[in-house]
Amino acid sequence: MTTRANRYDAVRMNREMLSSMSPPTWRWYLLAAVLGAVVAFGLYAFTVQVTTGMGVTGINRPVMWGIYIISFVFWVGLSHSGTMVSAILRLSKASWRRPILRGAEAMTVFSISVAGLFPLIHLGRNWIFYYLLPYPNQRGLWPNFRSPLLFDMVAINTYIIGSTIFLYIGLLPDLAVVRDCSSGWKKKIYAILAMGWRGSAEQWQVFSRGSTLLACLIIPVAVSVHSIVAWDFAVTLVPGWHSTIFAPYFVIGAITSGVAAVITLMIVIRKLFKLEEFLQPVHFDNMAKLLLAVCLLWSYFYFSEVFTTWYAHKPIEWEIFSFMSSRYGIMLLIMMLGNTIVPIIGLCFRQVRRSLPALLVITLLVNLAMFIERFLIVVPSLSHKNIPFIWGSYTPSWVELAIMVASFALFFLLYTLFAKFFPILAITDVREQEEVLLGSQQNGRTRLETLVKEE
Amino acid sequence: MEILGVFKTLDSAAAAIDKLIAAGVTEERITSLSSVPYPAGVLIKKKRLPRFYLWTLVFGGGGAVLGFSLAAGTAWLYPLQTGDKPIISIFPVGLITYELMMLFAIIGTLVGMFWAMRLPKFNRQAYADEIGDGAIGVLVTAEDGPKAEEVRESLRDSGAGRICNGEEGA
After folding, report:
1. Helix (H) or strand (E) holding B30
2. CA A277, A279, A285, A290: dihedral to nearest 10 degrees?
3. B6 and B29 housed in the same domain
4. Which residues of A touch B35 (CB under 8 A)?
5. In chain B, which residues have their Cβ closer than 8 Å to the Cβ of A214?
6. Is the same domain home to B85 and B104?
7. Looking at the structure, do residues B80 and B98 belong to the same domain, yes or no?
8. What is the tens place of the pLDDT at every residue in A130-183?
9. Are residues B109 and B156 in the same domain?
């Protein structure tokens, strides 16, 4: 009988994986202060918009959707891969998911929360946002459920709550580990968050089945949320938007940007918290293969849409494409490079997939290209709609740009705070692989064959 | 009462469970406490779980009814005539019903899991902080008196580093 105590050192693994929660350094405070200042400036810009009116934005006839809706679609997209990829990898029992899933799930919660702010900012008279809520009132008003704004509100709230529950359930055993490793007031707080978890065999059994059930439930929600965002566009008669493949095209685009963002964050987290032992080249290699697959799918959808427009040559649709390629030619080129050419060619090579600097550049480029893609979906179609005498264009104002930049800062600030107060690696999942699944031979009261391989 | 023995290694905990079973303690009265999940049989055999997924079904059904009532019922109560469009439209009613059904199914799963795991539990229970650092707890439910003393003796003989009663834990 082999004793497994010598094969691993749970204490050391706990300490290393919890190193991100060590007391903050001055660099951490500096980062948090800079991000906080950018968020504060965004709040100032929003205050200007509220007190002055929507005239301070670049939104005007005929382009009534601008940076706010573009950012909304972008952030909803970014939120996709976190929970969804984590759920798919959990269901497919991909053991390499373990060090990745917590960071991905947290990314979902924060990006969908940031996304949810943009419809509210875009509303105009933001202070009466509660008109969206269905409640009996003396005005006799009732929200119009035929409005896509209501679809969005319901879908986003479902996804925020669902993703938060998915993240929290996954965190539960890790919160108990943090509780056991801490003392004083911290121990009290983590004891409350851990809800009295003590890892009994029955609790683990329920946890395992419940997590699988939650994963099955969250995947269709994730698909529906981005489909609903796509239908905001597709159910209109605006040329360029009224397309049957918009929903799957949006979903694939969302997964593409989400997978790229997970890789970017993994690279940053690995460097900042010195987690080289846990986030190894094989994890980046596998995620890069996933990114390659979704980039190929995205390109297939995009070119399917463009080729049918080009071959049919319907005047108004072709006018929009001509306008986009002439007015926004550089942006179109960056989008093609970032979403198709660079990732598809680059990620075919193992050396690139395992090179972190190369992956960082590619994944940042993918998300830049994705933001541009959202811009090119929204603006050209609204600029050159069916009636030529109201054609126009759109340039975002400083207020819109400040709020957009602040949304990025807010996301990174929330993520930084999360990484400081919660385990950014799924401790029990990683340890389960190291201590249980990689083992074979006599194991406790039974004999188990090796369930997973290291790579 | 609950008696907890804390073991440094998996194998010593497994041997302790074997010894307890040999001494006549039924497996239903024994459970393991660990910071990582072990496959069924490594420490404790798979146990029959409460049907917590019924919460998912009940909540999901309730969510569907709520979603349908919100979208279709209120459109009927507060009719808003727009062109020749129907007052109750299938597309939005379907979407809102689906989203609320999924939302409540997820909430129901959470509630069901907590119910099945008997959480939250904030009062003191048999536990040791070493478990978070990889130690294995063997928890036995026994009547106070000679039987409890037998269990303590058995755990001590099997090499338990620490033995505590239910109220002495974290």
Report:
1. strand B30-33
2. 160
3. yes
4. 10, 173, 176-177, 180, 199, 428, 431
5. 106, 109-110
6. yes
7. yes
8. 877 777 666 666 777 888 878 888 998 999 999 999 999 999 999 999 999 888
9. no
